[in-house]
Amino acid sequence: MGRVPKLTRADAVSAARNPLAFIADRWTPHPRTVRRAALAALVMAIVIVVTGGAVRLTGSGLGCPTWPTCTDDSLTTTRAMGFHGVIEFGNRMLTYVLCAAVGWAIIAARAEKPWRRGLTRLGWLQFWIVMGNAVLGGIVVLVGLNPYTVAAHFLLSTALIAVATVMWQRTREGDAEPRPLVGMAVRQLVWFLVVASTLLIAAGTVVTGAGPHAGDSAKVERIPLDWETVAKAHAVLAWIVVTLTFALWFVLKAVDAPKGPLDRTRDLFVVLLLQGVIGYVQYFTHLPEAMVAAHMLGSCLMWVGVLRVLLSLRERPAAGAAELPDPSAEPELAKA
Fold first, then answer.
1. pLDDT at 336
2. pTM of this prediction?
3. What torsion, rounded to 10 degrees, do the Cα atoms 98, 100, 101, 106 define?
4. What element of type H or E holds 179?
5. Cβ-based neighbour number of residue 213 at 10 Å
6. Which backbone phi and psi does 179 adopt, to 5 degrees?
7. Treating both helix axes as pointing N-terminal to C-terminal, what angle do 117-142 and 147-170 enclose, rounded to 10 degrees?
8. Alpha helices, H only, 61-116
9. Which of 105, 142, 213, 234 has a beta carbon 3.0–4.6 Å from 37's, enabling a disulfide?
10. What is the dihedral of CA 49, 46, 136, 154, to 10 degrees?
11. 216 φψ region: left (φ > 0), alpha (ψ -120 to 50), beta (else)
């Protein structure tokens, strides 16, 4: 074990002024460490969504009736608040774990050599989304679980998952200009899939806001729509996403696309089928809490899968690598 360098006064001043630069000057992480840090941030972004769902499904949304403290007189939950207080406060504490995971991703990205500013910015974007969502979560409590704020809270979490997925993908790529692997028509089809998936997730928040799981045993405002009608519209959007995914897989096979896009499309199709089974089971069994929680996890995995399909349509070699011909200009792919 090597000697620990002595910390001088100048080092202390430098660390206080710019701690990230100070760490980067003294530590170079292995690329695998950077990838794992980005993956940890993504996993925690998904975990916080699932645990937030557990808060709602157990009726613990107002277990801590105020924010940022748990009660007017206590920062933490009290014994009198019981099980619901523990669940709600525990979910709040997981926000710090999420912050730690995002912070680790930022530090690892900043210390990587050479420094990739774009990667670091993706980490900081996650941080500010987490901070914004923490404030929005407090507003959700203060307005008594208003369903529109709950929907916005979930959608902002979905945005966090999107940025975390992009950062994870970028840790495995270079910084050269993106080189498309498929033709323009295929890329347009995938963008249709992304838009349809976004609408599907948004419709899911409306189903939640109109459905029976209000998040607390007290009377909570609901979105004034018929729950079953909204659920059926949500199912129609789900079938559109499944159809687009199957069509994409068929087109990729027809144009002999690279293995990456094919594998990502296959993975997404499997997730969609499993998510569809869970969705129909929860509908016909009157929304048991366990099935709803599984459906929320499936929603996150579906969104990650859609983004991975989108990101698999191009490659980014290391900067300075020799450029290869653009396959999107080849006739058989351009006509796809």
1. 36
2. 0.89
3. 130
4. strand 179-180
5. 17
6. -115, 115
7. 170
8. 82-111
9. 105
10. -60
11. beta
**pLDDT recorded at residue 122:** 97
Angle between helices 184-210 and 227-254 (to 10 degrees): 160
Encode burial over 41-59: b for 16+ CB neighbours within 10 A, e otherwise: bbebbbbbbebbbbbbbbb
Cα–Cα separations (whole angstroms), residue 286 to 68, 280, 282: 34, 10, 6
The tokens for 236 are 């129609």
Instruction: Tell me if residue 74 falls in helix, strand or coil.
Output: coil
**Is-contact 298 271, C-beta < 8 A?**
yes
Give the helix, strand, coil percentages of the chain, each rounded to 5.
70, 0, 25
> Could you tell me the CA-to-CA distances from 311 to 31, 192, 301 in Å, in that order?
20, 14, 15
The answer to whether residues 72 and 66 touch, using CB atoms and an 8 Å cutoff, is: yes
Helix or strand run (H / E) with residue 126 = helix 117-142
- The residue to which tokens 């809490």 are assigned: 289
d(Cα 165, Cα 308) in Å, to the nearest integer? Answer: 8
Closest to 52 in 3D by CA, of 206, 166, 208:
208
